[in-house]
Amino acid sequence: MGLLDSFERGLERAVNGAFAKTFRSGVQPVEISAALRRELDTKAAVVTRERILVPNEFTVRLAPPDYSRMNDIGRPLIDELTGLVQQHAVAQNYSFSGPVQITLRQDGTLSTGILQVDSTTVRRDVTWAGVLDIGSQRHHLNVGRTVIGRGSDADITVADTGTSRRHVEVVWDGKHAQATDLGSTNGSKLNGERFERAIVEPDSTIEIGRTRMVFRVVPEADGGA
After folding, report:
1. Distances (CA, A) of 102 to 25, 33, 84
2. Which of 99, 114, 136, 137 is most exposed, with the fewest beta carbons within 10 Å of its own?
3. How many helices (DSSP H) and strands (DSSP E) are in the chain?
């Protein structure tokens, strides 16, 4: 199974459960991901031998019923689609001129089950932020050290008796992140593997006790707590 196949399977799982009943007809999330991938391939422009430029801002136009279903998912769907676009760009050696932005828009001229993608290349200066997504909460990482644990003196407190008071420390320098287990009782895992100190890549999962945290790098405007 290829990287993108695996990613799209993850996207399908992300909309199961509470949302499963809404997808009996009409546009499916995986259809949107495929359309975005085609848009990248179609609009790819060879600038130099080492640089292939692709659009970075996308508007997905949907019929009103499809828009309503997709919009109900909200930010998790946009995050998954953004991740797909970024992963496909890496796989194909594409370059962006600015941050990837995806917007869903209602279009009454389209029939249910039909979607269209508009794209453009927008150059912007971007400041990137490191964040930790814990459940439905997003926590901004200040440049420097952030301690996570169940103690009141931790920078991010988690209500998890399986964690130590000061369980793990994440250091963010504005571009890269590193995690260190602070001698916790039950240890820490990065993407399922125990660690004492490790570099944390974007979209990696840190597990402490029963708590799962996903590290992401996002444009500064999206990085608020």
Report:
1. 23, 11, 11
2. 136
3. 4, 17
